[in-house]
Design brief:
The complex is a heterodimer of chains A (about 425) and B (about 250).
Chain A lengths: L1 H14 L32 E2 L5 E2 L1 E5 L26 H13 L5 E5 L6 H18 L5 E5 L6 H10 L2 E3 L7 H7 L5 H24 L11 E7 L6 H12 L4 E8 L18 H16 L4 H4 L13 H8 L6 E2 L5 H4 L7 H10 L7 H7 L3 H4 L3 E2 L13 H8 L19
Parallel strand pairs in A: 3-4, 4-5, 5-6, 6-7, 7-8, 9-10
Antiparallel strand pairs in A: 1-2
Helix pairs in contact in A: 2-3, 3-4, 4-6, 7-8
Chain B lengths: L1 E5 L3 H14 L5 E4 L10 E4 L4 H14 L2 H12 L5 H14 L11 H23 L3 E2 L4 E6 L6 H11 L4 E6 L4 E5 L4 E4 L6 H5 L11 H14 L8 H7 L13
The chains are: A alpha/beta (about 425), B alpha/beta (about 250).
C-alpha cells in the first residue's frame, strides 16, 4: 500500500515537472572522495531517452504541485483540477539516492509549485539539497529552480549546495507575461537571476583569497522561454537571449515549443502541434551565438525578423552575404571557417590542425566530416573551384539546397504523375 | 608481399615493430600463427614475443607520444576490429619515421582511421556510462551486465570506480565472459563460475534480489513513462540517441 502510494506520487510529481526542458548535467566536474556517494562528470551523461526523444539525465520532479499562482501556460496552476501531491524531504532524498546508486540518473532536478509564499517553498527545497550534500555526502549533480520572489538569503543558501540554479522567464516580453501570469513580472524573474550572478562573482573573489571557500553554483544558471504562445518574433526572442548571455553565469537559454496544456484558456492560441521546427531553428541560432561567434543582429534583422523554417540560420546568413564567399579553406582564419555552411566547430578545428601538413583537398575534407553537399558552394580548396554563391546567385543556390521531397502517401506504391 | 606471423597480443605487435626495423623488412600483412599464409607471399617472418623487445618499443612510444595518443592506440587495440592491428602497426611506423608532430595530421588516412576507430570505442565507453543499470542483490552487491561490441569494459572501469566508491559492484561482460568486481577499496578482474540465470539473461534471480529492488525498478519505470510528453512523441529520435542494442538490459525497457 505504501509502495502504491509512492509510485503514484512520483508519477504525479514527475508528470507536473516534465515541461521544464533543461536536463543538462554538464558544466561541473567533481571527483568522488572515498566513502562519498557519486561524482559529477564535466560533459554530463544522459542515462535514458523518453519516447519523445528527450534525454533523461536527472530525476526531474516537483517537491509539490500545489500552487497558489494561476499562470495560463502552466499545468499546475491553481484553477486546474488535477491530482495534487507532495514529497516529504526524507522521501525525496531517499528516492534520489536509490536511483543514483543504480546508475539510473545523474542527479536531481528539483522544482516546486508555490505553497504559502515563495520563501516558504524555497526553504523546503533548500532543506532537501542540503540534506543530500551534508548528511549523505552526495556528490552528484543538483539543479534547483529558484522560486521567483524568493529572498536573497535563500538564493545564496541554495547556491552553495546546487550545481545550477535557474529561473524561468517563460514569456519573452513583460507585457505578455503579465497578461498570462498575473502574479509575475519581469522584475520577479530578473531579481533572483541577479542574486545568482552576484553570488557567483562574490564567491569567485573570495576563492581567490582562500581555496577552502566553496564554489557557488559551479554550473551557472539557465532559463527557459515558451515559444509560440505569444506573438513575439524570433528577433525579440534572440535579443532577450543575447542580453542574458552577457551575464557570465548564464550558461543556457532553453526554448520550449508551446504545448496547450490548458486547452480551455482563451488567452492562448489553439494549436494542434507544438512549433517544433521553429524551436529547432531557435536552438540552431542559439548555437551560432554561443559557439560560432555570431551576434544576434547578424542572425536576424528588421527585414527578416523571423528565422527561415526551410533552411538553417547559418545557411540563411551565408545566402544573404555572398560577398564573404567563396573562402579558401587552406588560407582563411577560424572565424570565417566557422561561417561556411557545412563546416561545424569540430571540422573547423580539424581543418586548422591538418592544413599545417599540406593543402587539403575535397576527399580529405569529406573524410574530416565536412558536409560537402552544402559547403561546396561557399569554398574553394586545392582541387575544387566550382560554382559558388558569389559567381552564381543566392536564389539559385538556395533552390539547390532546399529539399524538395513531396511526402508520398505510401512509399511502396508507384506514383503516377499526370502533367496538367 | 612480406608477411609477419605473431601471437596476436599487444606485446607481440610491438615486437613486430621491433623486428621490422631490425630486419628493415616492413610487412604488408600481419597474421596469426594459425592463419593461412595469403597467396603471392614472398617472405614470411615468424615473430617471437620477447618482453625485452616489447619494453624497448614501449619506451620509445612513451617518449614519442602524448598520454592521450597512447590511450587512443590502446582503445584501437581493444576495438578488436579486423585489421586494426595492422593499422596500429602503420601508425606506429608513421610516428617513428616522422620528424614532426604527427598525431594531428588528419589528412593522412592512417591517422584519420585511428582517430575514427578510437572514437567508436570511446562512444561505446560513454554508452556504458549511460546505459548500465545496476540490480541490487540481497548481499548488497550491485550487479550489471554489459554486452559490448568492442572490448570496451576495461576503459569504463575508472568512471565507475570513482562514482560508486561507497558500494560493492560487479560489471560483467556477458559476451566475453569476464568482468570486474569492486570490493569497496580495489577493482578485481573476475570470471563468474557456474551457470547462474544472470549469466544467461543478465538479470539476477528474484530470490537473490534485495527486497527493495523490485520497488525501485517499478518506480523508475513509472518515472520513465510519466516524463514523456505525448504531444511530442518521436520514436525515431529516441532510437537515434539510445540505439536498440542497448535496450536489452535497460530496466525501463523490460
Amino acid at each position: 500500500m505504501v509502495n502504491e502510494n509512492l509510485i503514484n506520487k512520483l508519477a504525479t510529481l514527475s508528470e507536473s515537472a516534465k515541461y521544464d526542458v533543461s536536463c543538462s548535467s554538464s558544466g561541473v566536474t567533481r571527483k568522488s572522495k572515498s566513502g562519498d556517494i557519486g561524482s559529477a562528470s564535466g560533459w554530463g551523461i544522459c542515462h535514458s531517452y523518453t519516447e519523445d526523444g528527450r534525454c533523461v539525465s536527472l530525476l526531474k520532479v516537483l517537491l509539490t504541485n500545489y500552487c497558489i499562482y494561476d499562470c495560463a501556460y502552466c499545468i499546475n496552476r491553481k484553477s486546474n483540477d488535477i491530482k495534487r501531491a507532495a514529497f516529504s524531504v526524507k522521501e525525496l532524498v531517499n528516492l534520489t539516492l536509490e536511483f543514483y546508486k543504480r546508475n539510473y540518473i545523474e542527479g536531481l532536478f528539483l522544482s516546486s509549485g508555490i505553497i504559502k509564499n515563495p520563501d516558504h517553498t524555497m526553504e523546503r527545497m533548500v532543506r532537501v539539497i542540503k540534506e543530500l550534500r551534508t548528511i549523505h555526502r552526495y556528490n552528484g549533480y543538483i539543479h534547483m529552480k529558484s522560486i521567483p520572489g524568493a529572498s536573497k538569503e535563500l538564493v545564496y543558501q541554495a547556491g552553495l549546495y546546487a550545481d545550477r540554479l535557474s529561473v524561468n522567464i517563460e514569456i519573452p516580453s513583460e507585457k505578455n507575461l503579465k497578461y498570462l501570469a498575473p502574479e509575475k513580472d519581469h522584475a520577479s524573474v530578473f531579481t533572483p537571476m541577479k542574486y545568482i550572478q552576484n553570488g557567483v562573482t562574490e564567491y569567485k573573489e573570495e576563492r581567490k583569497k582562500s581555496k577552502s571557500v566553496s564554489k557557488f553554483t559551479p554550473a551557472g544558471q539557465s532559463t527557459q522561454m515558451i515559444i509560440g504562445a505569444t506573438n513575439e518574433t524570433d528577433q525579440d526572442i534572440l535579443r532577450v537571449s543575447s542580453v542574458l548571455y552577457l551575464q557570465s553565469s548564464m550558461r543556457r537559454v532553453y526554448y520550449s515549443g508551446f504545448i496547450p496544456v490548458n486547452p480551455g484558456d482563451t488567452r492562448l492560441p489553439a494549436i494542434r502541434q507544438a512549433p517544433l521546427v521553429r524551436e529547432n531553428r531557435l536552438y540552431q541560432a542559439d548555437w551560432l551565438m554561443r559557439f560560432y561567434q555570431f551576434s544576434s543582429e547578424e542572425i536576424l534583422d528588421d527585414v527578416n525578423p523571423n528565422l527561415d523554417l526551410e533552411i538553417d540560420p547559418k545557411l540563411s546568413w551565408a545566402l544573404r552575404h555572398p560577398e564573404y564567399f567563396p573562402v579558401d579553406i587552406n588560407i582563411c582564419d577560424y572565424h570565417l571557417l566557422l561561417r561556411v555552411p557545412g563546416i561545424g566547430v569540430k571540422s573547423a578545428k580539424l581543418i586548422l590542425a591538418s592544413r599545417r601538413f599540406g593543402l587539403l583537398d575535397t576527399y580529405q575534407l569529406k573524410k574530416i566530416g565536412v558536409s560537402m553537399k552544402r559547403a561546396k558552394f561557399f569554398m574553394v580548396c586545392r582541387d575544387y573551384r566550382g560554382l559558388n554563391v558569389n559567381s552564381s546567385s543566392p536564389e539559385y543556390i538556395r533552390s539547390l539546397l532546399v529539399k524538395k521531397t513531396p511526402r508520398s502517401v505510401a512509399s511502396n506504391q508507384m506514383s503516377l504523375l499526370f502533367s496538367e | 608481399m612480406v608477411v609477419f606471423q605473431y601471437d596476436k597480443s599487444f606485446e607481440g605487435l610491438l615486437c613486430a615493430v621491433f623486428e621490422a626495423y631490425d630486419k628493415k623488412k616492413y610487412p604488408e600483412s600481419l597474421i596469426s600463427q594459425e592463419q593461412i599464409v595469403p597467396l603471392l607471399t614472398r617472405e614470411v617472418f615468424a615473430i617471437e614475443t620477447q618482453t625485452e623487445k616489447f619494453l624497448r618499443v614501449l619506451t620509445l612510444l612513451k617518449n614519442k607520444m602524448s598520454v592521450m595518443e597512447l590511450n587512443r592506440l590502446n582503445a584501437v587495440w581493444l576495438s578488436e576490429i579486423e585489421n586494426s592491428d595492422f593499422l596500429l602497426f602503420q601508425y606506429i611506423k608513421y610516428a617513428i619515421d616522422s620528424k614532426f608532430e604527427h598525431s594531428a595530421n588528419f589528412g593522412h588516412p592512417v591517422v584519420l582511421e585511428i582517430h575514427k576507430i578510437a572514437k567508436k570505442v570511446s562512444k561505446e565507453v560513454h554508452a556504458w556510462q549511460q546505459f548500465v543499470r545496476f540490480q541490487k542483490s540481497k548481499d548488497e552487491i550491485y550487479f550489471a551486465p554489459v554486452h559490448p561490441v568492442y572490448n570496451s569494459l576495461p576503459l569504463v572501469i575508472p568512471h565507475f570506480k570513482d562514482r560508486f566508491s561507497s558500494q560493492q559492484w560487479i560489471l560483467y561482460d556477458l559476451k566475453r565472459n569476464y568482468g570486474f568486481y569492486y570490493d569497496l577499496s580495489e577493482v578485481h578482474p573476475m570470471v563468474l563460475e557456474g551457470s547462474g540465470e544472470h549469466l544467461r539473461t543478465g538479470f539476477v534471480d528474484e530470490e537473490m534480489l534485495h527486497p527493495d529492488e523490485k520497488l525501485f525498478q517499478e518506480l523508475w519505470k513509472k518515472y520513465h513513462t510519466s516524463v514523456s510528453i505525448k504531444e511530442r512523441i518521436n520514436l525515431k529520435l529516441q532510437k537515434q540517441y539510445m540505439p536498440k542494442r542497448y535496450w536489452k538490459f535497460l530496466t525501463e525497457k523490460q
